[in-house]
Design a protein that fits this description.
heterodimer, A: Ubiquitin-like (UB roll), B: mainly beta, Methylamine Dehydrogenase, Chain H
Amino acid sequence: MIRVVLPAHLRTLAHVDGEVKLDVEGQATQRSVLDALEACYPMLRGTIRDHVTQQRRAFVRFFACEQDLSHEPPDAPLPDAVAMGVEPFLVVGAMAGG
Amino acid sequence: MRGVRVLVGTRKGAFVLTSDGKRERWDISGPHFGGWEIYHLKGSPADPNRLYASQSTGWFGQQIQRSNDGGKTWEAVGNKFVYDGVPGTHQWYDGTPHPWEFARVWHLEPSLTDPDTVYAGVEDAALFRSTDGGQTWQELPGLRGHRSAPSWQPGAGGMCLHTILLDPTDPGRILIAISAAGVFRTDDAGKTWRPVNRGLRSENIPDPTAEVGHCVHHIAMHRSRPGVLFMQKHWDVMRSDDAGESWQEVSGNLPTDFGFPIDVHAHEPDTIYVVPIKSDSEHYPPEGKLRVYRSRTGGHEWEALTKGLPQRDCYVNVLRDAMAVDSLDSCGVYFGTTGGQVYASADAGDSWASIVRDLPAVVSVEVQTLP
């Protein structure tokens, strides 16, 4: 079970409160977690990563275990603590706007 | 008694204002989608309870929201806007080729006859259509395939397709406007397009009478006379009596002919409204006086409408999609400002009152006349 914390606007869009819990097939990576997230919540497609290129949107960041994973390859394994559900995978709207 | 529903898009959410036919007391609901930019929302002429809204942010991109109950509840529908084929390039601000990149939906235009069919004008400029209530979107690629497209350039607000006019007498005819390319028309339901900008003159482009490159801000038509078009250009108010084949300037005695919105009275096809703005660098009314100008002669002769509008220290702007009319008798006229006010006139512009104040900056205003 993977725990995902979404930013407030995406929780509203997906009609969820608090953390999202996902069953992820195979190894837990950014790609497999986001695939599972979008399968459960199709309205989130295009909001975190581009529909076509699948690249992370510029003002979205991925944090976990007090690390910035935003620039990790999408198929890199996530930390064990995330894979085991001890720590959440955080999807964050980057600070912007002054 | 009949009523009206005013749909207001703002920089930080959507608001729905309703009133009875007197248009004196208003109920306000919202913000819907608080925190998101709502460039436009509009109801289906075929089913007034079917609304579409364009919701976006720089963080999370584009959403399209749909309501089946007049804006009480909403559901997110399709947000996948993918250009047809290889997108190609247009000109960037510095004149270099720049790949077409989707940024947002500026304008949603529901079909006149089918609630599930809706057109979307997007940035970078292209026209999309959905025939399944917004679930999926397909580009009408003939527009962007026009031979002039590689030369199109963005205006200061981006290269947006912001106006879509559907001809009520001819389902094959659609007019669109792009900043800063100009007006294009199709007569075969979107397969082929051609620029219809003859008569426009723009001193701020290398060839002032070029076929394309004009910064058209908005165009409007009256349902009863779709061949007559009125345009607010970057500078100049223009009129066409032949569906865009040729344009004549009708700025007449306006204090300035810069501005963004233009609209037509619901029952008088030669009565039109604009909001003059001082200049393209000073996006506020001249002399700090917010004045709507009305022409009852289809242009040339204009009168200032000031009763109920601030006549001192007013420095707001009125954006291109932020004016609309209802079809009650007498015609109601509405506009929203970047200062967050929505003003309404229940007497065709003779007098005005703010029906809401202190909203986020208003981007769009649409009005539905309810049975």
